[in-house]
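for the writeup, i need someone to sanity check this before i put it in the appendix. the sequnce is what the collaborator sent (i think, or maybe the updated version? ugh). structure was predicted straight from it, no edits. if anything looks off just tell me and ill rerun, i have time this weekend
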Amino acid sequence: MAQAKNLAATEENSSRSLSWVIENGPPDAATSSELPHVCGLPTDLEAQQFCEHHDLEDTIHQAVDLITASYRSASDLKLYKETDPDIGESWLVIDFCVQGDLDQIEEEDEIFTQKWVATMPRDKDGLVHDLVRIGFDILS
C-alpha cells in the first residue's frame, strides 16, 4: 500500500516538474545552484517560505537525520510544498529515492516510521502535526 501511495506521489511530482520545465525551461547549472535550500535540501521559494512561516527548520533537520540514518541507500533528497486543492491545507514533503531488496527497504521503513512518530512535534492537543510528510521512490 505504501508503494501505491509513493507511485501516485511520484506521478504527481513528475507532472509538476514537467509543467514547470515547460513553462520555465530546464534549469541550467547556474540556475540550479541559485535555487533555495532548506536544511541543505533543494526546494523552491514557496516551500522555503512555508518552512519559515511555520518554523519547521528543526523538524526538517530531524527528518533528514532520521532518513539518512534509517535508509542505507537514501539519495536525491528534495523538499517541496504540496496543497490539497479540495480542503486548502498545505504541507511540506521530503522526497527521496531508495534502492535495494524490498524486504530490506520495508525493514528500514518500519524503523524509520517508529522513530519518526516517536520524535515528531505535537500540536497543543498532543496530536502529531502533519506539516512535514515523507515520501520515497523505490528504484530498481
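Confidence is low (pLDDT under 50) at residues 1-32. Helices lie at 2-24, 29-34, 45-53, 57-70, 102-119.
thx in advance!!
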